Structure formats: structure tokens, C-alpha cells
From TrEMBL:
Keyword set, alphabetical order: ATP-binding, Cell membrane, Coiled coil, Kinase, Membrane, Nucleotide-binding, Phosphoprotein, Transferase, Transmembrane, Transmembrane helix, Two-component regulatory system
Broadest EC class assigned to this enzyme: transferase
Reactions that this protein is recorded to catalyse: ATP + protein L-histidine = ADP + protein N-phospho-L-histidine
Positions in coiled-coil regions: 367-394
Entry-linked SUPFAM superfamilies: ATPase domain of HSP90 chaperone/DNA topoisomerase II/histidine kinase, HAMP domain-like
HAMP domain boundaries: 320-372
Membrane topology: Multi-pass membrane protein
GO-annotated molecular function: kinase activity
Transmembrane parts of this sequence: 301-319
Compartments, as annotated in UniProt: Cell membrane
Protein's recorded name: histidine kinase
Length: 593
């Protein structure tokens, strides 16, 4: 470390300046990136888990709706008295083919009506005497084969209100096996008052409907439907159907699990269905879940790096141009030190360094004034260097730079981020610009809209912002940043940075322009309300006039100073209806200060 400092001290002035500036430019972004990555790591994990849970909830609604539809169809058959009567009549022994032909058409029409609006559902009704009815052709499949299935014998021991969820099995409709190799099936038994079965209902839906929904809605997630033992009934990967989910023991219905599979981190979610005792499982790669966010951050880092390199190159050129004449002067001074007084500095220009060269030549001609002139010019040189280091970026450069970044992001298709940069640019411009103390209501409200958009992004939530503004007030002038502090107060203290509503209302009567800001937040208790009203009535320089948690004092004092006693401010708040702040500003005649 000491050797490094020694080498730095041996550098020339120009090299030291370049090295210092580069270090000051590069070190802060690197430190900021590391700190940002550390503090946003948990937030990214939480956001990724939330997104995965939302997708799983939507899938739950779809699957539950499908199973409920199947239950509804079987209930429709069970509780239709006419249908039940026909089935009892047709199911009597001995088997009467003529009766089946004449009256069985009613059952067939009933089944076709039930599944008319449902794609790829197959319903079978089996009678005890061997008769059956279906909504599909008997040449595709003979439903009497169901009686040889192991689960069919269990139906006789069930009540007519029980449902047996068979699960997933190969598609028995030959023409549909390629499109959907598997079916999800349920079965019920219908019994008379004597508990004797008079019909069996078997209803099947194509599993491909579920897997297609999984693939379409959440293509980056691996979703599957399992029974209580972990056997996969439906999945985005058809090869897994019928196998046991190996990570079933790691799932927890109350928590989000992060686990390692094949050296890759995954988010594992388990959500039970409200019916059937089945489960929806979601397995999504953590890197895939945060890929979009990471890409945005990488692009942002690369953009900063490119602009930093460009800035450093221009800085090198500027420093080299400024310091090159100093190098010439140093060489001339070294020659003078050795006694060569006839040398001159060939430096041209009208700037400070050019004048310095001229004065240096004059000092050589007037040796008696050399020390005084050198001291004065060296002092001037140091002041110029300090001014150079203390110079600030022109605000117009900042706005142009933001606009360039916005256009690049918009060209890449990220319209939302481009709009956010537009909002930030406009808000910064309104903050920096001090030319007009008064602005039209329309401009002030536009600033509030941009502020709300940025606050929603900052807190990762959507505050519902509504406006109720009478058109005839849009051109009325009000002091700058009159409304924004009340919106900020509603965000931070009223809604406590949580989801809620904010309503901005503006209208006028013959005397006043009236502005109201309402939020449905936590409200202000009675004790704090009393303290707030007392604080607003104190003098502005009173040390006791600070309002803990509600920054309204400064706005009140500023408007009172501008409008005098004509200004009015009213605050209404309770825990149920939220908080409403209303101010009345006297209307001014055109041309009146």
C-alpha cells in the first residue's frame, strides 16, 4: 500500500488529476451497485414468490371451476325428478330393448344438452340392467367396460351425495387420443330411497385442457395437479402424468419454499383445491422468475458504464488540452532555473493560460517583478482548477440525458419504463425551474399525476388516484407545489404506504378556489387532531409548531403568507372514513398580484 502511494506522489499533476477524477467517478457507482444488490436481494425473492403465487391462484380458479362444472352436471342429472323417473323405469329388470329405444332418447338428449357448451367432456350413465347412455358414439368406447375397473365396485358403498374422483387415466375416446392422451374422471352412484342403486354416472374431461391452460397462462412455471399421495394428474409435461412428484414432502401449504434442484434454486408452492382433496403444485426457477428485472438492471448498468466511458474520454481530452500549456510552462521554468533567461513560452490564446504565458514572458524581461507575478498567477491558476472541479452539470444536460435514455428504452419496447422516466424528467423540471411562483391549476395537477405515478413505482403498489376537477378552474393560477404536499401526506401518513384511494377535487365559487384531497387511510386520532390544529395556529418560528408525522405546517404558513387572512384550511379525519384536507384560496382578478 505504501509503495502505491509513493508511486502516486511521483505522478505529474496532469496524471494525478486524471487519476483522482477517474477514481471519484468509478468508485461511487460500484459501491452503489453492491449496496443495491445487497438490500434488494430479499425484495426480489419476495416479489418472485408473490408473482408465482398469483399465477398459482389463477390456475386454482380455473381448475376449481372445471371440477365444479363436472359436479354441477352430475347434480343436474341427480336432482332432475323427470330424469330420475325415466332412469328408474329403464333400469328395471328384465332388460326391454324397445323401451330403451323409445324412452331412452330423453336421457340421451339430456346428456347432450349438459355438455353442449363444454368442449371435450364425455358423460356416461350406466343402469343396473346393463343399459347405458352416452354423449359419444358407442363405437368409440363401450361404457360397460367401466364395470371391470377396480374403482367401480366402490361406488355401491357410497352415498348418492359422495363423489369418487378417479383421477387421470388414458383417453378411452380413440379419435381424441392424439390431441389429449389422458382424461380426468369422476364417478357417482344414484340411489333410491331404499339405498339401492338405480344409475351410475361417469364423467370425464380431457386433461389437455388443464395442461394447455398451465402452458398458456404461466409458460415459465412448471405447474401440476396432484392427488393427496403426490401422484401427478395433470402437468405441463405430459411425460410426468401418473408419476409421483418427488418433492411432495418438501411442500408446505402455508409457506413458500426455496429449494435446490440440480444445483439450481427453485420456488416451490403448494395450494390445496377446495374440492376433491387434490393439490396444485408450482415449481419455478428463481432465475427465470427474476429474469426480466435482472435484464432491466443489467441494461441500466451497461448504459451507465457506456456513458461513464464516454464522459471519461471527453474528460481526458479536456484535461489534456488544459494542462498541455502548463507542461510547456514547466519546461521553460526549468530552463530559467538553470540560468537560461533567453527562452520564451510560445503559448497563444486569450484564455487564462494564454495570458499566463504572456505574463511569464514579461516576468523574464522584468526580473525584479518575477516573484510577485509568479505568486499572483499561480494563485489564479489554483482558483481556476478549484472552479473546474466544483462545476456542476447543467440541468438542461440532465434533461436531455434523461430524454435520450427514455428514447432508448422506448425503442426496446419498454413503454412503461420510458413513461416513468418522462414523469421523473417533468417532476425534476418543475422542481428546478423557479421562474414562475404561480402556475395554472392544469400544470399543477399534471405535476401531481407524475408524482403519483413515481410513488406507485417506488412503493411497488397501485394507489388508486382519482380526479374530480371542474373544467372552469384549469386556468386559475395557484402557488407552485400547493397540491403535491397534500398528496405526499396522504401517501406516507394517511395510507401508510399501503393500497388505498386518493381523490383530488377542485372547484370554485364566486369568491374562492376550493381544493380537497381525500384518502381512505388510517385517519388521525382525536389527540393528534387537536395537536395538529393547535400547531397550525402557532407562529411559523415557534419551536413547538412542529407536527410529528404530518408535514402540513410549511404549506399552511406559505399559503397564509401569500393570501393573508382570506386563506382557509380545514381538516376532517376519523378511522372509518379516512382524512380529507380542504383549502380555500381567494380568487384573484386578472393582472392582480
Amino acid at each position: 500500500m505504501n509503495s502505491l502511494f509513493k508511486k502516486l506522489f511521483k505522478l505529474s499533476l496532469r496524471q494525478k488529476i486524471m487519476f483522482s477524477i477517474i477514481a471519484c467517478l468509478i468508485a461511487p457507482p460500484i459501491i452503489a451497485i453492491q449496496v443495491s444488490d445487497y438490500f434488494t436481494r430479499d425484495v426480489l425473492r419476495e416479489q418472485a414468490a408473490t408473482n408465482a403465487q398469483e399465477s398459482l391462484d389463477v390456475a386454482n380458479l380455473y381448475v376449481t371451476d372445471l371440477l365444479n362444472s363436472m359436479i354441477y352436471m352430475t347434480n343436474n342429472i341427480q336432482f332432475d325428478n323427470e330424469t330420475a323417473t325415466v332412469m328408474r323405469k329403464l333400469g328395471q329388470e328384465p332388460f326391454d330393448p324397445s323401451l330403451i329405444v323409445m324412452e331412452g332418447k330423453y336421457i340421451t338428449n339430456k346428456l347432450e344438452t349438459l355438455v353442449f357448451s363444454k368442449d371435450h367432456m364425455y358423460i356416461s350413465v350406466l343402469l343396473p340392467n346393463g343399459a347405458y347412455f352416452t354423449n359419444y358414439s358407442g363405437s368409440e368406447f363401450n361404457p360397460l367396460q367401466f364395470r371391470s375397473e377396480p374403482w367401480f365396485a366402490k361406488l355401491d358403498s357410497m352415498t348418492e351425495y359422495d363423489i369418487h374422483w378417479v383421477g387421470t387415466h388414458p383417453n378411452y375416446i380413440g379419435s381424441r387420443t392424439k390431441a389429449s392422451p389422458n382424461l380426468v374422471t369422476m364417478a357417482r352412484v344414484l340411489k333410491s330411497s331404499s339405498s339401492k342403486p338405480y344409475a351410475y354416472i361417469v364423467l370425464s374431461a380431457e386433461e389437455q385442457m388443464i395442461s394447455d391452460f398451465f402452458n398458456k397462462y404461466a409458460p415459465t412455471q412448471k405447474m401440476m395437479l396432484t392427488d393427496s399421495t403426490g401422484t401427478i394428474l395433470a402437468s405441463t409435461d405430459n411425460q410426468q402424468i401418473g408419476t409421483v412428484f418427488s418433492q411432495m414432502e418438501a411442500t408446505d401449504q402455508s409457506k413458500t419454499k426455496f429449494l435446490m434442484v440440480d444445483n439450481q434454486e427453485y420456488i416451490l408452492l403448494n395450494e390445496p383445491l377446495s374440492i376433491s382433496g387434490w393439490h396444485l403444485i408450482s415449481l419455478v426457477s428463481y432465475q427465470t422468475a427474476i429474469e426480466k428485472i435482472q435484464n432491466i438492471r443489467k441494461n441500466d448498468y451497461w448504459a451507465q458504464f457506456v456513458f461513464l466511458l464516454i464522459f471519461i474520454v471527453f474528460l481526458f481530452l479536456i484535461i489534456n488540452r488544459i494542462t498541455k500549456p502548463l507542461v510547456v510552462l514547466a519546461r521553460v521554468a526549468a530552463s530559467v532555473k538553470l540560468g537560461t533567461l533567453n527562452v520564451r513560452a510560445d503559448i497563444r490564446g486569450t484564455d487564462e493560460i494564454g495570458r499566463l504565458g504572456q505574463v511569464f514572458n514579461q516576468m523574464l524581461e522584468r526580473i525584479e517583478l518575477m516573484i510577485e507575478q509568479i505568486t499572483e498567477e499561480q494563485t489564479r491558476k489554483r482558483m481556476l482548477e478549484l472552479e473546474l472541479l466544483q462545476a456542476q452539470i447543467n440541468p438542461h444536460f440532465l434533461f436531455n440525458l434523461l430524454n435520450s435514455i427514455r428514447m432508448k428504452i422506448r425503442m426496446r419496447g419498454d413503454r412503461e419504463s420510458a413513461d416513468l422516466i418522462t414523469s421523473l424528467s417533468k417532476l425534476l423540471r418543475m422542481t428546478i425551474n423557479r421562474n414562475n411562483e404561480f402556475l395554472p391549476v392544469d400544470v399543477e395537477v399534471d405535476t401531481v399525476r407524475h408524482y403519483v405515478k413515481l410513488m406507485n413505482v417506488r412503493h411497488n403498489q397501485k394507489i388508486q388516484f382519482e380526479e374530480s376537477i371542474v373544467p372552469n378552474v384549469l386556468m386559475e393560477d395557484i402557488p407552485r407545489f400547493t397540491i403535491q404536499p397534500f398528496i405526499e401526506n396522504a401517501f406516507i401518513h394517511g395510507l401508510n404506504q399501503k393500497y388505498g384511494h386518493i381523490i383530488l377535487s377542485i372547484w370554485k365559487d364566486q369568491t374562492y378556489l376550493i381544493i380537497s384531497v381525500w384518502d381512505d387511510g388510517v385517519g388521525i386520532d382525536e389527540e393528534k387532531m387537536d395537536e395538529l390544529k393547535k400547531s397550525l395556529n402557532r407562529e411559523a418560528n415557534d419551536s413547538k409548531s412542529r407536527i410529528n408525522g404530518i408535514g402540513l405546517k410549511n404549506v399552511h404558513d406559505r399559503l397564509a403568507l401569500i393570501y393573508g387572512p382570506s386563506f382557509q384550511m380545514d381538516i376532517q379525519s376519523d378511522a372509518k372514513s379516512g382524512t380529507e384536507i380542504t383549502i380555500k384560496l381567494p380568487l384573484r382578478a386578472k393582472g392582480e398580484d
